[in-house]
Amino acid sequence: MTAKDKLRDLLSKDLDGLSLSAESGLASGSTDFSPPLSSLTPVKTIYSAEASLFVLRAGARLLETGLVDFCYLTTTDYIQHRYPQDAQEALEFYSAIDREIGRLVRSGAVVGITADHGMSAKTDANGEPNIVFLEELLRRRFGSSTTVICPITDPYPRHHASLGSAAMVYLEDTGEVAAVAEYIRSLEGVEQVLGRENAALELELPADRIGDLIVFAHKDVVIGKDRNYHDLRALEAPLRSHGGRGEQMVPFIISRPLRGSSGNGTNHGLRNYDIFEVCCNAVS
């Protein structure tokens, strides 16, 4: 069960079970789940807190009625993009999430909570976006043989205008990699530049699917292509986004004690995707 339909499409491929998104409603399923879900209020827009709460309410309803025994519920980060964590709107959203998580726990389920990234303000003291238009700078210096890909690009520009703190650089002439990397490191706002091989090792990425260079910006800076590519008019609030080193730490919360755990330690080797293994096989 997802908030965005694009993610439901990816996760439900060849799925033998229920597929649901807040954005489009029930998409597939061999069982009629309509009765327990019919009282849920449809979501009017994906750009809302309700898109995330719909997913949690649907999951809680199905668990409470005993119609499912395993749920993967994924929300949207629209509220976190739009509001800082101490804003009243954010606090109300987290309170509503807490209530739905309480329902999941009371249903008897083992509940695991994690995230794909953190979130940071990407603005200066006046609230204006801090942007390094990397492709624009590289083409001015090295010509049109350089291409910058912003991996945060998706169909939801009101979240972030396709601006995040990471980007991949592709070069037609790989003999220029060292010179381009050196130039990028000299730019204000850039935190780290990794070549393909080092990036594949350090970030555990497939080398054949990443750029010649991967660039990370400082915590309060984002990397864009050029000024004409990103529509900043889509933003509804000062830019908040992710993709950099500063957003790597995420929660990892389990509703039951772990087997053999003293209850006062953490395992820093855990990754967010380990939530499935821990919930299914490691709880008391």
**Secondary structure tally: strands:** 12
CATH topology of the largest domain: Gyrase A, domain 2
Uncertain regions spanning at least 5 consecutive residues: none
Q: Architecture of the largest domain in CATH?
A: 2-Layer Sandwich
Domain module tally: 2
Full CATH superfamily name of the largest domain: Domain 2, Phosphonoacetate Hydrolase
Shape: globular
Order of helices and strands: HEEHHHHEEEHEHEHEHEEEEH
The total count of helices amounts to: 10
CATH class of the largest domain: Alpha Beta
Strand content bin: 15-25%
> What structural class should be given to the helix and strand makeup?
alpha+beta
Distance between the termini: 26 Å
Structure explained in plain terms:
The protein contains ten helices and twelve strands. Helices cover 31% and strands 15% of the residues. It has two domains: 105 residues, no CATH class; 116 residues, Domain 2, Phosphonoacetate Hydrolase (Gyrase A, domain 2), CATH 3.30.1360. With 284 residues, the chain is an alpha+beta fold.
